[in-house]
Every structure is written in structure tokens, then in C-alpha cells.
Amino acid sequence: MKALPLALLALAFAIPLRADNWLENGDFMNGIDHWRGNGRSPADFASDSPFDKPDPFTSKGLIIDLKQSHWAKVLQDFHGKGSSGVLTITYMVSPDLTFSNKGEYYQNVPGQIEYDAWVPFNMPPGDWVVLISDFGAVHGPYYEIKPKLGSSNPQIFQTKVDRLTPNGDKTITLAFPPGSGKLVILSVSLTDQ
User: Fold this and answer.
1) Of the candidates 37, 42, 35, which has an alpha carbon nearest to the alpha carbon of residue 63?
2) Sheet holding 62-65, edge to edge
3) 3-state secondary structure at position 160
4) Are 164 and 54 in contact (CB under 8 A)?
5) For residue 92, what are the contacts with CB-CB under 8 A and spacing of at least 6?
6) What does the alpha-carbon distance between residue 139 and residue 26 come to, in Å, rounded to a whole number?
7) Under DSSP, is residue 10 helix (H, G, I), strand (E, B) or coil?
8) What is the pTM of this model?
9) 166 three-class SS
């Protein structure tokens, strides 16, 4: 009789705890619900013909078509839980993706994405950025991401996030400089450490 409770206890410790994602639909299983901005759904790329096979690159995730002369962005409002966490983004870039190398596009990045109240910052050409902010804030943590170009294999960006106001309403923004090609966000999670 004692063996059953001990077995259940052992099983409970053997199963890893899964951290809850603070973001909604971070795996895009429900299309692009809860996300807004310049992202597109795989349904936008589906063929009208039932005989056509879907393009594996645009058949899942949140798809960003880069713009030639201005930044693109996608964002989600969410309720933060703690003052720190772990941000993980899995994404792919099309083999033809290129970001502009014009320096002026990377000056005052918040102004480039129409976040004029944010404290200005500059970035090196070729990076895209993730910003996390409290509602109404003029600054917050931001993370520059340098993708490996020329490969359509999934890439993972992971970092510790801190300096968040616990239990506050926030916005996460993924912003992409001008360029050509597509970037597919496969998943975005912000979880407890």
C-alpha cells in the first residue's frame, strides 16, 4: 500500500515542471490571434487549389514580409507575472532575406517603429529587435537579434529578461528593419525562470 504513494511522488518529481507562457498564442496554433501589426497568417499564403502542396516555409507561424523602406513590427499586450523571466523566440528566415545596411534605418529605432515616446537607441545594421515595456513606459528592456542569413533552418534566440514591473500590463514588440524576404516566427515565449 505504501508503494503506490511513493511511486506517485517519484513520478511527480520525474516530470519536469512546465513554465507557463505569459503570452497568448505564442505557438501560433490559433493562427495570429492575440498578435497585431504587420504579421500574416499561413492562410494568407495557402493556395486556392486543393491539389497544391503548401509551401513548408509559409505553412506555420507568424509570417513577416520585410518592407523596402520602413520597419515592420508585430506586437502583443500581455499581463506580466514577475520581475524577470526567460524570453525564447524560435524563427526562420527565407534564404533570400536581407536587411538594409543603410545606417539611418538603425538610428533612433523607437522612432523608426513609431514608438516616439520611447527613449531613443541605435542598433548595428543587420539586427532585428524585441522590446518589452510596461503600458505607457518610455523605456524598457530591448534585445538585438542577429539572424544567420542564407539558411532556412530554425534559429533560436533565448535570453534572461529582467527589470520588469511585476504583475503589470506590458507590450512585447518584435521589430524588423527594412529589407527583402520573409521571416517566420515559429514561437515566442516569456516564462518564469
Assistant:
1) 42
2) 39-40, 62-65, 182-191, 85-93, 155-161
3) strand
4) no
5) 57, 61, 152, 153, 154, 155, 183, 184, 186
6) 23
7) helix
8) 0.86
9) coil
pLDDT in tens, 76-99: 999 988 889 999 999 999 999 999
Q: Which three cell numbers stand for residue 119?
A: 527613449
Other beta carbons within 10 Å of 117: 12
Confidence category of residue 9, pLDDT binned at 50, 70, 90 = very low
Q: Give the side-chain half-sphere CA count within 13 A for 61.
A: 21
What is the model's pLDDT at position 179?
Answer: 97
Q: In the β-sheet with 169-176, what is the strand arrangement from edge to edge?
A: 36-37, 72-79, 169-176, 128-134, 142-145
* Cell reading at 6: 511513493
For the segment 102-160, what is each residue's pLDDT rounded down to a tens digit?
A: 999 999 999 999 999 899 999 999 999 999 998 777 788 999 999 999 888 999 999 99
Question: Which residues are bridge partners to 2 per DSSP?
Answer: none
Beta bridge partners of 158: 88
3 state SS of 58: helix
Q: Concatenate the DSSP letters of all residues of 75-130 into one string.
A: EEEEE--SS-EEEEEEEEE-TT-EE---GGGGSSHHHHTT-TTSPP----TT-EEE
With residue 176 as reference, give the H or E element that holds it.
strand 169-176
> Which DSSP state fits 137?
-
Residue with cell 530554425: 154
